[in-house]
Amino acid sequence: MEIDQLFCIFGGFFTLLAARSNWNWFWNHPRAKGVLSMCRGKKGARIFYSIVGILLIALGINGF
Question: How confident is the model at residue 54 (pLDDT cuts 50, 70, 90)?
Answer without folding.
Answer: very high
